[in-house]
Amino acid sequence: MPTIRDEGKIYTAAKEGKVPFISAEDIAGVAYRGLVDEKSHDCDHVIVGPENLTYGQLAETLTSVLGRPIEHVNYTEDQVRERLVKLGLNEGYAKMLSALDTSVSQGKEELHNDVVEKVTGRRPLTFKEFAEKSRDVWQKA
Length: 141
Hints:
Elements: H1 2-7, E1 9-12, H2 24-36, H3 55-66, E2 71-74, H4 77-86, H5 91-105, H6 115-120, H7 127-133
Parallel strand pairs: 1-2
């Protein structure tokens, strides 16, 4: 997210809602097993991370990992939509993304399961582990 790198900010309308953040590495691990396992998984995997976190908690973790302040800025759904449109997203897509933040704020994304571990045989990365592995992405040039 360029705003983390360039501004030290995360803008959402998620308030204190929690999300089970998942790494692309863990998603790929489940997808890989689904493609190569002899026996079909014959299901839709709901792939979620190991912990439900607020964006404020993400900001705290990133502050610790990056060694500089990262802040979660609470916007309204309309403010998020307007910001996304100014960044170049079309109105419909921006509206859908900002509505997802409202869904998060209402607790609708707070999920937990053991799919990654059951399918891959290893536990999913925590956000802190992911942030430490990906720290260069958020460093200012």
